[in-house]
Amino acid sequence: MKLTLPKWYDLHTHLRQDGLVGPIIQSQLDMGCCGILAMPNTKPPVAKVFKDDPLEYWCIEGYLDLIKREGGDAFDDVIVPLYLTKDTTPQMIEEGAKSSLLRACKYYPPHGTTGADFGYPFANYFDNGVFEALQDNNVVLCIHGEQHAMKGEEYFAQDSNAEDVFYREQMPKLVEAFPNLKVACEHVTTRTAVKFVQSCGDNVAASITPQHLLYTVGDLLMGLKYHLFCLPLVKFAEDRDALRAAATGAGNTKFYAGTDSAAHTVKATDCGCAAGCFTGGIAPQLYAQGFEEAGLDLSQDDAQAAFKRFLCENGPNFYDLPVSEETFTLEKTPQDVELIETSVGPITPLPLGLGHNSIPWSYND
Ligand SMILES: [Zn+2]
């Protein structure tokens, strides 16, 4: 069985910095990406737009230069969202949008995930004019939707968790206050988030990662497979069912591919574990596997159409990007998965970290 598809946009990935950027860009090109949205949680974060801004952050202009130098000029398009901090102003948004360097912003809950130390509470942006400026300038707001500063017992409980709380308590306020704001609900993991996105208009869409389509928290806990530790955490089977139904549904126009692929050369440390699963080079193969595990027969036309919408069409439609005219092919024959060597150490792709050195689908140019 073979699927020939338009090249696709990975609309949530991490290119990191230093010696990792080049190999990670290569891993994105190696899986048919024609474009990417590269996250700004570097050190320092990408939290200003222009080089001549005196704030002591990295700037979108400079990070885009680095990406191009490291092989990113092979992409049709690269979007770097601005990391929202206490220093973000409506004026920054307006000037950035006018220059066309600023096309998206990223909200991180304070200290909520890897590199989120500069996040500023969500409610503050309602009052300081930043969300309004995004809405007025047609800049997409990318959301890491988890409540911050929760006690452990609330953070991950049987019937609720940080993402549930955020989508129940914060997100309805956002869409009510800014009804025309374009909102990308990134890496959704719960039934609650899926229902919220479905209840909104076309200006609210959501990305789903391969790991959240494939696995549950049980897969993480059995043997403590820490390579599956990412934020938001993988959840329960009912949540995964909701994600699978949303991604594979015949009427799906809102849910799209965004891998959140995040490379770590050191994943487990003495006192914890870095969050993020690396799926560079193999994400379309893993998404195809997820669609099959959701019960779709990818030899059938309607299932192929649903897969193409999810991987190649809904994301670019939401971000006003053209669907690529170049193609790549996936084939249902096993592909070996290997460590990726870099100058700063090896990166472990997720399947290897789960003990699988081969995956059911392979990639062909
Ligand atoms: Zn991410």
Structure description:
This protein is α/β, with parallel strands linked by helices and 365 residues long. It has a single domain, classed as Metal-dependent hydrolases (TIM Barrel), CATH 3.20.20. Helix content is 34%, strand content 17%. It contains 14 helices and 18 strands. The strands form 6 sheets. It has a 6-stranded parallel sheet. Strand 13 and strand 14 form a beta hairpin. Helix 3 runs parallel beside helix 5. The longest helix has 18 residues. The protein is globular. 51% of the residues are buried. The mean pLDDT is 96. Bound molecules: zinc ion.
In short:
The protein has 365 residues and is α/β, with parallel strands linked by helices. The protein has helices spanning 21-29, 60-69, 90-99, 124-127, 130-136, 152-155, 162-177, 191-199, 210-214, 217-221, 237-248, 283-293, 301-318, 350-353, and strands at residues 2-6, 8-13, 33-38, 46-48, 58-59, 77-79, 82-83, 104-107, 140-143, 183-185, 204-208, 255-257, 268-269, 272-273, 327-331, 335-336, 358-359, 362-364.
For this entry, give a set of tags.
TIM Barrel; 18 strands; 6-stranded parallel β-sheet; binds zinc ion; alpha/beta; 3-stranded antiparallel β-sheet
* End-to-end separation: 15 Å
The CATH top-level class label: Alpha Beta
Kindly identify the CATH topology. TIM Barrel
| β-sheet strand percentage | 15-25%
Shape: globular
How are the strands of the largest sheet arranged? Answer: 7-8-9-10-11-12
Small molecules in complex = zinc ion
Poorly predicted tracts of residues = none
Helix proportion: 25-40%
Helix count equals 14
Q: Give me the count of strands.
A: 18
Largest sheet: 6 strands, parallel
CATH-defined superfamily: Metal-dependent hydrolases
What's the architecture, going by CATH?
A: Alpha-Beta Barrel
What's the overall average pLDDT, rounded?
96
- What value does the Rg take, in angstroms? 19 Å
Based on helices, strands and strand pairing, what is the structural class?
A: alpha/beta
Q: Count up the domains.
A: 1
